[in-house]
């Protein structure tokens, strides 16, 4: 998996704290470690860090957030 973005940071969320109470498609139960999320974004706490790029959007300015996920499968030769 490759992720392309025009944002400077990425936040990783994991399923470490899932306890089986989340239910998804086809009544699938999500337990601990059953997922992760990559969220591209500006740097955390940017508004309090003067040396970080600004995140303030002024009137008549345009905000554009691009995030592209690219998935591929490659054959891997086993050394066994």
Structure classification: mainly beta
Q: Low-confidence runs (pLDDT<50, min 5 residues)?
A: none
Which shape, going by the Cα principal axes? Answer: extended
**Number of strand segments:** 6
List strands and helices in order, with pairings.
Elements: E1 2-5, E2 9-14, E3 22-23, E4 29-30, E5 36-41, E6 67-70
Antiparallel strand pairs: 1-6, 2-5, 3-4
Describe the protein in words.
This protein has about 80 residues and is mainly beta. About 0% of the residues lie in helices and about 30% in strands. It has one domain. A two-stranded antiparallel sheet has the order 1-6. It has a two-stranded antiparallel ribbon with strand order 2-5. A two-stranded antiparallel ribbon has the order 3-4. The chain starts with a strand and ends in a 10-residue tail after the last strand.
What key attributes describe this structure?
single chain; 80 residues; mainly beta; two-stranded antiparallel sheet; 6 strands; 0% helix
Summarize the structure.
This protein is an all-beta fold.
């Amino acid at each position: 998996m490759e992720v392309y973005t025009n944002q400077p940071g990425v936040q990783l969320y994991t399923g470490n704290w899932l306890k089986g109470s989340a239910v998804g498609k086809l009544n699938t139960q999500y337990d601990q470690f059953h997922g992760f999320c990559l969220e591209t974004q500006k740097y955390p706490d940017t508004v309090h860090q003067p040396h970080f790029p600004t995140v303030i959007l002024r009137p008549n300015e345009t905000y554009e957030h691009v995030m592209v996920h690219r998935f591929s499968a490659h054959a891997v030769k086993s050394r066994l």
